[in-house]
Amino acid sequence: MSQENVEIVKRFIGTLGSDLIALHGNGEVWARAAEEAGGLVEPDFESAVPELPGTRVYVGLGEFHQAWLDWLAPWERYGIEVVEIVDHGARIFVLIANVGRLAGSSHDVETTFANIYWIRDGRIMRWEAYLDPTAAQAALSSDG
């Protein structure tokens, strides 16, 4: 079952693509991606950034989309590339390279974030984003 979980995450990431401005900034593109991704997530799919104090949990693909719109607001360009996917059974760790350019800037910003996908019964039930990959590793080590 665990390799199946990795494949679910790969399909989800592939559905969303790597150019997040193009995905979230265009209603038609988002609608097509959300329709495809909808079969991979629970209806009450949660997304969160646990490291940020006061962060809220977003529920459903619509709120996932809104969270990304909020995050991407200051960016002129923002893309991701999967660096590594590690199977942890019902949780899948994904290391992500991010490259973006803030509006009005002439310099790219490069960072590495981590995501944890929680899988239940063949569907993604939760997505967590970590600004610090070591914090994601610590979360995987916990009983959570």
List the helices and strands and how they pair.
Elements: H1 2-16, H2 20-25, H3 27-38, E1 41-48, E2 58-59, H4 60-72, E3 75-88, E4 91-102, E5 109-120, E6 123-130, H5 133-141
Parallel strand pairs: 1-6
Antiparallel strand pairs: 1-2, 3-4, 4-5, 5-6
Question: What can you see in these coordinates?
Answer:
It is a single chain. By secondary structure, the chain is an alpha+beta fold. It has a single domain, classed as Roll (Nuclear Transport Factor 2, Chain: A), CATH 3.10.450.50. It has helices spanning 2-16, 20-25, 27-38, 60-72, 133-141, and strands at residues 41-48, 58-59, 75-88, 91-102, 109-120, 123-130. It has a six-stranded mixed β-sheet, sandwiched between helices. It is globular. The two termini are 20 Å apart.
